[in-house]
Design goal:
The chain is mainly β. Helix content is about 10%, strand content about 50%. Strands 1, 2, 3, 4, 5, 6, 7, 8, 9 and 10 form a 10-stranded antiparallel beta sheet that branches.
Length: about 240
């Protein structure tokens, strides 16, 4: 995740530098874009979600951490923005995020059904409801950097929270609602007909989202104290 942030940061600032050098005194596009009280748009992008596990040492030592195999997912959503002043905007960005993770559990190497027991595919379709504060710098020609952060509520449509089956039947269960905080940065580019914004953002769950198995000594969940989502988004916004 650190590499993602560093690569994204480098990409954004290299793009901004090239844009600034290409025209030292550019013709200003969309000069009144940031003066409107309300602004609307949409975003497309991709994500990579992970899990952070905390283990309960009172229930026995954890010999090997649970492994998480991550894949790239996609994001799509809408944007509503309220202008507070020249540098601050309040944004609501409801979106649909799809992702998949595969969990590898230790302790099943000698089990005759190890392949079936050791792996759990976690396919998640999230509906994310973030309320964010965007703090922008002064506009430089046709680009403007910003920082963004805030809180969000996420509805996991594939949580299996109410399922009566658990990992002993091959069903991995998570809580339906998750609460997070989000932090990120990006650059607004003012093009001739619209504003284009690449951004990179991290999301970090505040609440434990694991639903434990019915058996307190479960080899899948018995030693987990908390499981929290963390992830990274790369979004491309059009306003």
């Amino acid at each position: 995740m650190k590499n993602w942030f560093l690569c994204g940061l480098g990409f954004l600032f290299i793009t901004a530098s090239v844009s600034a050098q290409f025209k030292e005194s550019p013709i200003l596009n969309k000069q009144n874009e940031d003066k409107k009280l309300l602004n609307w748009g949409y975003f497309l992008g991709f994500n990579q979600y992970d899990f952070k596990f905390d283990y309960d040492e009172d229930n026995g030592p954890q010999q090997t951490d649970i492994l998480v195999s991550k894949t790239l997912g996609f994001n799509v959503g809408l944007i509503g923005e309220l202008r507070l002043n020249q540098f601050l905007d309040l944004r609501f960005e409801p979106g649909l995020h799809y992702t998949q993770r595969t969990l590898g559990f230790p302790g099943f190497r000698d089990d005759e059904d190890a392949a079936r027991n050791a792996l759990r595919e976690v396919k998640s379709t999230y509906i994310n409801f973030p309320l964010l504060l965007k703090a922008s710098a002064k506009r430089f020609g046709n680009w403007k950097p910003f920082l963004i952060g805030g809180g969000s509520m996420t509805l996991n449509l594939g949580s299996n929270e109410t399922s009566l089956d658990d990992n002993s039947s091959g069903t991995f269960r998570m809580k339906k609602w998750v609460y997070n905080y989000e932090l990120g940065f990006g650059i607004d580019f003012y093009l001739e007909y619209f504003k284009f914004t690449p951004s990179i953002r991290g999301v970090f769950a505040l609440t434990d989202e694991l639903v434990r198995d019915n058996n307190p000594e479960s080899p899948w969940t018995g030693n987990i104290d908390a499981m929290r989502t963390r992830g990274i988004f790369v979004n491309f916004t059009f306003e």
